[in-house]
């Protein structure tokens, strides 16, 4: 089953999207990750419905999809209802957040304390740059989004440290044909920002490398209504 979350407002560039890892019943073995469930799910989010339509059409045009040694076949698509965005939103990470990459003078693998102002500032700069680049928001709107703060769940971080587990890891990414590494963070947190900013990071991913599957967010204790996804008539006629 392919589950998709999207909004139906303004159209964005196709780079404004993110996606989850493949979800299913798994077990780590010597040869890698083994799937034991008959169905696997991937979540894709973008504000551009035409882009999602093309992805869905492309998936169902393939008789089988080969991922490593895993053979998949597109089965069904659902759309999830979006939440009501407010100035204070709590999030969970479906995929790791990369606060920066290829910043001059900084190592992509550098650890930045999530409780520091630097961590929040990096995500603010990334978000404002991506919102400006989308062409949807005016300079006046971008300037009005100055209220922004990321507040990680400190109790979660303390518990993870006590258990000697990691919430920040180095990930390999293929970008522009080159293999690079970046540090990603997986943790619950709260964002204080304008509702428009909350909507943007929810539908486009939070932080850098979103179009490589990073920065996908979920909302705790939110059970969205799911309905069958229907491709628009304009996409089927192309």
Automatic annotation (TrEMBL):
In what residue span(s) does the CRISPR associated protein Cas6 C-terminal domain sit?
Answer: 83-219
Q: Which molecular function GO terms apply here?
A: hydrolase activity, acting on ester bonds; RNA binding
> Which UniProt keywords are present, listed alphabetically?
Antiviral defense, RNA-binding
The answer, when asked if Repeat is one of the entry's keywords, is: no
Top-level taxon in the UniProt lineage? Bacteria
Q: Does the keyword 4Fe-4S apply?
A: no
Per the UniProt entry, what are the Gene Ontology biological process annotations, in alphabetical order? defense response to virus
| Pfam families named among the record's database cross-references | Cas_Cas6_C (PF01881)
Q: Which InterPro entries match?
A: Cas_Cas6_C, CRISPR-assoc_prot_Cas6, CRISPR-assoc_prot_Cas6_N_sf
Q: Which family does it belong to?
A: Belongs to the CRISPR-associated protein Cas6/Cse3/CasE family.
Would you tell me the protein name for this molecule?
CRISPR-associated endoribonuclease Cas6
